[in-house]
Amino acid sequence: MLRWFGFLMVLLGLLGRTGLASATPAHINTWLNDAGTGALLLQVDAEQGWQPALLLDTRFDVQVSGPVARVKVEQRFRNTLDGFAEGVYAFPLAERAGVHGMQMQIGERRIVGRIEEKARARQIFEQARAQGQAAALVEQRRPNIFSTSVANIEPGRDIVVSLEYTELLVPDGTRLSLRLPLTMTPRYQPRPVVHAENPAPAPTHDLGAPEGPILPPGVAPAGSHRTRMSLQLDAGQPLASLASPSHAIRMRADGQRHRIELETEVVPMDRDFVLNWQLQGGTSSRVNVFAERVDGELHALLMLMPGELPAKAERRPREVILIVDTSGSMQGERMRQARQSLIYALGRLQPEDRFNVLEFNHQHSMLYRDLQPANARNLDEAKAWVGRLQASGGTEMLPVLRDALAIPGDPGYLRQVIFITDGSVSNEADILTLIERRRHRARLFTVGIGAAPNSYLLRKSAELGRGSYNFIADSNEVEAQMALLFEKLERPVLTDLRLVLPEGIEADHGPQELPDLYAGQPLLVAMKLNDMPAHLTLHGRQPGPWQQRFTLPAEQAHAGAGVLWARQKIEGLMDQLSQGKDEETVRQQVLPVALKHRLLSAYTSFVAVDEVPVRPTDQALHGEAVGNLNPEDHQYPQTSLGLLQKWVLALLLGLMAVMLLRRRTA
Question: What is the pTM of this model?
Answer without folding.
Answer: 0.79
